[in-house]
Every structure is written in C-alpha cells, then in structure tokens.
## 1
Amino acid sequence: MSFLDMFNQDLVTSVIRALIPILLAALGGMIAERAGIFNIGLEGMILIGAFCAVTASFFTHSWLLGVIAAMLAGALFALILGYGAVYRKGDPIVLAIAMNILALGMTSFLLVAIFDVQGVFQDPGIVGIPVWRIPVLADIPYLGALFSLTPLGYLALLLVPTLWIVLFRTPLGLRLRGVGERPLAAATLGVKPERYQLGAVLASGALAGLGGAQLALGNVVLFTENMSSGRGWIAVVAVMLARAHPVGVLGAAVLFGFADALGFRLQILGLPPQLTDAAPYVVTLIVLIFTSRRFRKPREAALA
C-alpha cells in the first residue's frame, strides 16, 4: 500500500471513530472554560468513565446502563474539582492534576479488586455500544461514515450546534459566559456564580465520562490500564485552540482525530509503532506552539 492509497473510505471512518471521544471531552472542557474553570482533569474523567462503562456493561449486560454509569461517574468525579475550586477556592490546576493521578491509580486498583486481572480486561459479557446505520445515507462515499455511528457519535455531533445555540442565543448561555468573564458583575445582577460554575464542571465531567464510554464500549469493547492515553490532554488543547467555541472545538477534534487515525495506518507502511503512536501528540505540541504565539501577540501589543 502506498501513502496515497491510505486516504480512502476506511481512513475517514477511522478519523470519525477517533475524534468522538476527544470531541465529547473537549465540549465538556469548553463548558467549564466558559464558566471560568479551566478543567485539565479531563484525562482522569475519561478514564473513570471508561472503567465504569465497562464494569456496568459487564454486570448488567446492557450498553445503555454502561453509558449512564459512565456519565454519572464522570460527573461525580468532577464534583471533586467543582467543590474544591468553586467553594473552597482551591487551585483548579493542582486539583485536576491530582485527580488525573487518582483516576489512574484507582482504576488500576479496582481492575484487580473487581475482576482479578491486571492490564487488560476483555470478556464476552461486556456489551458494546451498537452502530446505528442510517440506510441510503450510510452508502454515500466518504460522507457515509457520518451516518454509521454509535448513539454517542451522533450525540457528539449534535451537541456542537446545540451548545452553540445555548451559549450564544439563550439567557442561560449569556449568564454562563457572564459568570466566566465577569463573575462579580454577574452577581450584582442576581446570578449566583458558584451554582453556574459547579453545574458547568459537573456537565464537563459527564461529557468526559461519555467520551470514556465511547472509547471503551464503542471504539473497542474492553478496558486497559491508562486507556485514555492522553486523549484528555488533547481535549484540553482542543479547547485552547478553539478558544472555547463549539465549532472550533469540532475542527480541533477532527485535526487530532485525523492525526490519531493516520498514525495507526502509517504502521502498515512499516513505520515503528513507537513513532506512529506519537503522531497525535506531535500535532498537539505544534498546535500549542502556534497557539501560544497567537495569544502572546495581543498581550505584547497591549504592553507596547
């Protein structure tokens, strides 16, 4: 297979599968960012969501209950950040880093405690999320991949315009953005900033948990230690790159999803997996460099 031969229908399908968990987590991070809480704990929230999705699916034999468990677990885990940063005025960066470490250790411990395995848990009892294929539309070349997704895949794509409408065309979105930009001014208008910030952080955790469910039950049907593998950090970069705008978050998720999918397919050409697995993170570093330059110029101009 040549390099050009890789750009086919299968690559488009792989890109969409890779971007859905990132997009869900990034949309959650965007909501928290709009409320004034910079959530870098998405990595741990994805991991907690993936573990709880697999655990619930295994014991209940229901993918739907697995998805619900992932969403609730992500929101509950995010409560640590919400309470600590909003009500106790702790540093959200320090809290989120601690949460990421906690999630890694806790899921590894529970994997042994509950399933008596280390590293990977894969069992026929785990029920994966089905693919809902829309007839006719799914047969369209290339674009058909958008109409052959899991329910969480459709939800992630629908959330982009929905959140845009909520943020920029509703009173709720106006209050949320006001709390994030001018919390004291919002408080003088009768808005309670703490409630909006806590709600935004919980929504962020719930969406990151759904990203974990998609990763563990949609893309594959298993759980491995450190399964998030940096996707939460990539979602954080997507929020930064998009300046917390839903459409921009989608574009960034597509970029990182493409890098992730292309990295796997480059292994077919004989490139070492250690090199191809680094593709999404190389793109992340490049994006961070250009993003930091873009953010630095306005500040330098203001100081001049």
## 2
Amino acid sequence: MSLEYHLVPTHITDNPNDYRAVSRNSKSYTLEDVFKNMTREGSTITTAEAMAVFEEITRGITEFLKEGYTVITPLVNLSSSVTGVFKGKDELFDPNQHGVRLNINSGIRLRDIPASIRPTLVQRVKAAPSINYLFDNISDTRNEIITPGGGARIKGDLLKYDDEDPKQGIFFINTGDQSEHRVERSPLRNMPKELIFMLPDLPEGEYRLEVRSIPYGASTLRSGRLADPVTVAP
C-alpha cells in the first residue's frame, strides 16, 4: 500500500526550511468498486445480495443514530454530541442557536491500518481535472459504450468548469480524424467530483474523453483525460 505526498512550506514554525506533507490518494474507489471486489470470481455472494445487505446495515445504523444512540462497529464508531453555547444551566436546546454533530472514529478493524500504509514522496503536480470513469445510462456501461443523445455521468476530481467559457468543458476527441466535439448543452450537474450531462450527437467511432477547466486557485486551462477510449457503436 502506498500513500503519495508532496511537501510544501509550513508557517507553523519559525524555521523557513521546515515543510509539511500534503497527502493524496493515487486512486479512488466507489461503493460500486467495493461490491465488485466482494463479488469477484469465486465469491459466494452476488452484487444484488451485497447491495441488499449494505442497505439493511445502513438502515439499522441510521435508525439507532436518529434515536441519539452510539453505534460501535469493527470499522467505525459513531456517536452524536450537542454544539453551541447555552446561556445558563437551565437553557433548553434551541435549533436556532444550537446543533447536533455526528462524531465518527476508527473502529478496531481500522486502527492498525495506518501502520501498514507506506508513504511515498512525489513531486508536486499542478491541480487538474482527474477522471475516474464515464458511465453511459442507456448502455449501462462504464468506460466502454457511449450513446449519442443519452445521459451520462463522469466521476472524478476537479471536474467543475465554467460552462460559459468555450475553452472549458467536456470534450470528445475522435481518435481517427482528431476532430473535437464539445458538450454544448449545460450539464445537469456541474460539481468538482461529478458531472451529469447529455451526450452530443457523435458519429460512429472511437473517442477520447477530456474535461478542461481552470481549477480554483489556478490561472491557466488544465485538462484531464479518461485512460480508456470509448466507442459510439453502429
């Protein structure tokens, strides 16, 4: 296991030669990936069964939390606490002045994990969009088939872009003639970790997917590309 990090100057100490680590995960996984791992070849459980069990576990935990109880599991321990300032020892809870916060701590199965993670120093890279996968709603595939005119979803990081800037956005580049096709319709969801949009009218062929944006704090256009090409099927 490896946890990548780069070093930046720290202002906590008076020594100008002191640095602090900024960590990053080289790859992210979703709950769908966890289910795929659980139901890999040789497993005795199906994806539907895994999802059903997860939903029941989630429901059971949330029901206890809603009652104000503490829930202790091998992965995480969950509890709640009251926040805010009370003016006097007899003041009652006022949702306009006070709040309830969920507290989440590592369970016994996670406490030894940090000791097994190997940190690796890497060079700092410029912030840029990163694409984990493209999901096509109609074909129900990931990183494979795209259906012109259908809905699609991109998951990743730093994906949000300025829809009014024609240089930014979602682009499909034909691997044959290198023609670029920008998604002109405004996305249904335009967030740093998720883009939901309607696919443009693309001719048959193979395409590279790119997301181009100017991330927060940056002054130049950056781009991120999906590792695998996608195909508009005949």
## 3
Amino acid sequence: MPIDVEKLLGYSIPTVRQTLTRRETAFYALSVGMGQDPEDERQLSYVDYSRDLRALPSMAVVLAHPGFWLADPRSGVDATQVVHGEQELNLHAPLPVEGELVGETSIVGLVDKGPGQGALLYTRKAVTDAASGKLIASTLNTTFIRGGGGFGGSATPFKPSPTQSVGEPDFVVDLPTRAEQALYYRMNGDDNPLHANPAVAAQAGFTRPILHGLCTFGVVCHAVVKVLADYDASLLRGMSLRFSSPVYPGETIRSEIWRDGSFQARVLERDALVVSNGLAYLGGRA
C-alpha cells in the first residue's frame, strides 16, 4: 500500500551521539570479513586494536547510526517492504578509530514510482566530531519501499547513477562471507529483523535472512581498498553503488574493479549480479 507521506516527511529522525572505541572500530572490520587471513599484516591493521589501528572507510555508514527507524509505525512505512537500493559515502576527513561523534540524519528526497510500484526514499547523514563540529563523513542512502508508490509524488530521479565501465575488469577480488555474518553485522546498530529472523525474511519474499546491503558495501570497500590503494584507507575519498540483488550469508562476493574506480560485484554460487554502477574516488588529502 502507498506510504503515508505526511507521517514520513514529518518523522523526526533522532540525532545520535556515539562514543566510538577502538574495539568497535576493530569489530566493524571483522563484521565485514576483514581478518580472515590471519597472516596478512595489512588486514590485521584494521582488526587488531592492540596495534596502530586503522578504520575501514565504509565504517562511516554505521557511525552515529539512528538504527532501523523505519520500523517505527509513526514513520508511515511498512517496514517489511523496505530494502536498501543505493549507497553513497563521502569522506571529508580521515575516520577516527575512537572519539565522540554526532550523527544527524534527514530526509532529502522522495520519489513516487507509481501505483502498485515502489517508492524511493533518500536520506542523508552527516557525521561530525562532537568537540569541534568538524564534518568527518556524509552518506546518502536510497531506500526502496516495495509497493509504496502511488501517493502522488514526483517521479523524477533524485540523482543519476554513475556509468558502468565496459570490458574486462582490471582486478577481480573474491571475498567469502560467513553463514553467521549478518548476525555479527547487525551488532553495528542495524537491527532490521530481515537479516536475522527467518519468518520476517519469508514474509518479505526471501528464502532465508539476507545479508545487510551495508555489509555487502563493506565487503566491496575492502576489495577496493585492497587493489586500488594497497590497504591504505586514507586514499579513499568516497564510493557509491547500487544494490542489484541480495546476498545470502555464506556466499562469496566477487568484486570486479576497473582502474578508473568503477566496479561491480556478483556472488559466485548463483552467478548473480549483486552490486552495479559502483564508483570509488581516490586521492591524497590536502
């Protein structure tokens, strides 16, 4: 059924203040599969909090996260029909491994795909340093609400998607996920039951709980940092992608990456394209 636009646009998404610890930074990297090679010193620098720890850039999507606020009936949305459509991340400063952060999330766009079709909800989050107010990262999240269209809104896309490179990729990176990975990942603050409860997954039309789209985002970020930055996360300035199909925990994600920063990903077990229109931005910082 169509979303309740008045409720949705009037919903006050809570501002979140987070005390980030080194353990949480390491846990995030572990939750997206870092450290599966215990002899790879480059990966260990992201998961071993006893050393000179680094933050995987994709962690910005969970920092000061407001949680699954669409599950609140006051949002005017049927939470069982919500899936992640696209994700964009921009880094304005190096991510800290610990400290006080503030996250402010707001609705910035809503697209009506038509009666009986879906709706696209765009939310932007700004993550700032609590002490200085300095902007650290910003994210743009596209949520697809199945069957939520027909409320009389604009059908104009909020933003164009990047053009995918053609030809053979320059790099191919296979990274396995674990059967219980969604259960780990949800401890970062995304507790949508779609990723843990078989009954909820079945109600949404899936054979079993699926992996969080943002967990897939983290796995692909790992692949990008590995081949385009030789594990130097400070070189990644931003990345965006479209989620084309869900990943089931336990599947292997193959990231196909071009030197210009464009990428896509598929799962080997089903040869299904799960990420498309990907683009990573790299460069030094002033």
## 4
Amino acid sequence: MPRLRRAAGADAGTLLLLLGIGLFWGLNWPAVRIGLTELQPFTLRSVGFVAGGGILALIARLRGEALMPRREELPRLVLAGLLSVMGFNVLTAFGQLATETSRAAILAFTMPLWATLMATAMGERLTGERIVALLAGMAGLMLLLGPDLLVAGGSPLGSLLVLGAAVSWAAGTLVLKSRTWSLGPVALAAWLIGVSTPPVLLGSALLEQPWQLGWPSPPVVGAMLYHIALPMVFCHAAWVTLVGRLPAPVAAIGTLLIPVVGVISAVLLLGEPLGARKLAALLLVTGAVATVLVGPALRRGPGS
C-alpha cells in the first residue's frame, strides 16, 4: 500500500506539472501582447531569450547536465533552435501585432497538423485517422481565415504570420526528434534558446534601436517577468524533462490546454470578443490535434 500511494502521488505531481504547462503557456499569449504595447517584437524576444536561456543554462548546470554538445550535433541543433524557437517566437510576435491574440493562439496550435503533413511527405503512412484530423483542422482554419480571405479589405497578414510560426515549430520539432541528443533535457532547451538569441539581438539592434526606449510601465514589466519566469523557464524545463518519459496521452493534456487557456485569457484579460466562429474553430482544431496525438497512443497502450 505505501508503494501504491507513492506512485499515485508521483502521478499527481506529474499531472500538476502538465496542467501548469498548459496554464502558463496559455497565459503567455496575453502576456506577450501586453509586452508588445511598449516593446517591439525583436526587442521583446531578445529580453526573453537572454534571460530565459541564461536561467535554463544555470539550472542545467545545477542539475549536473553537460552543457557542451558533441561537434557533430551542432548543425542540426542550430537548425532545430532557429526553426522551433526563433522562427516560432518572432513570427508569433509580429503576427500578434496584426491579428487578435485569441485567434493567434488557435492558429499556432495547428503545429501538430503541419508536423503530420511533413511526416507523411517524408514517408509515414497517412491513416484514415490522420485524414479526419487534417480535415477538421483545415475546417477550423477556414473558419478563422475565411473573413480575411473572402471579404473585400480583409487583411490576412497577421494570421499568415502565425501560421508560418506553426509550420516553423513543426519543422523544428521534426529536426529535434530526428536523433538522440547527448545533452540533458534542460541543457538542450537552453541551447535551443541560446542559438536563437544572436539573430534576434541583431534584429533588435538594426531595426528597433531599443536603447532609445524609456523604462517600460509596470504592467509591461510584470508581463515580461511572468513571460521569463514561467513560459520561458518553467515550461521549457518542465516540458523537455517530462515529455520523453510520459505516455503520449498524458503529455497531450498540457498541449491541449494551451489554446483553450490562450483564448479564454485573451477574452478576459484583453477584452477580445469570443464569438461562435472562433469557438467553433477552437473546438475543431483542439479535436483534430487530440485525434493526432491521443488516439494512436491510446491504442499502443501505456508504455507508448
């Protein structure tokens, strides 16, 4: 009995971490939007990457993880970081300036659908389950993009930027999963952010001149402290630590919560409208991703 209670406690702790990932990454959408009211995209991402990457490297060191990858890993490590971290974060920041945050949270969450298409193009079998998921996801996309694409004067730029972010994240994820890394999980997260930092610093210096900015207001400071401490540090460290040893249905809990929390928090904190169209798109996209992530793993069983 004591052994069973300990196991149950460990499972409860894991579930709490996953719920925290879904909550904190979901709330990151309005936090970044608040930051963008006074900081430009490259500058905002520079602050997050420098602070978050540095703290993750320190945590990895304290955990006893090696900080230097093997030489042969560097090209693929750089590519994975530029796609999954820099590409995603920069494109979503610019996208949020041109579209609603709640819409961006749904569009970015289409990443598993793009990863499925890429994997299929690389030779994986396109099952009936995946076809249904892709059709549902595309229906959700059309609900969100339809007004911009079909109505005269519509501007799809913000939505297309966020879709580009989702595609970049998907490609980076496939690169990341293409090999077994010598680095520990937290050190790997630190490297993914670290290799993305020089390009955003350069973009900030050349295009935004952040040294001309005054000290940001308390709401922006608070939003950035939240962004660094929880989404950048806690979520990255928790996710890369847990995802490799969890069954996919359990890991999907945190992922499925992100757009739901993102949409609800954008409505409550930013005053954005919800509406039947956006709610239907959220249900279609989350249902599609649940089909891709959870269904196959449940059939494989608990050891998957």
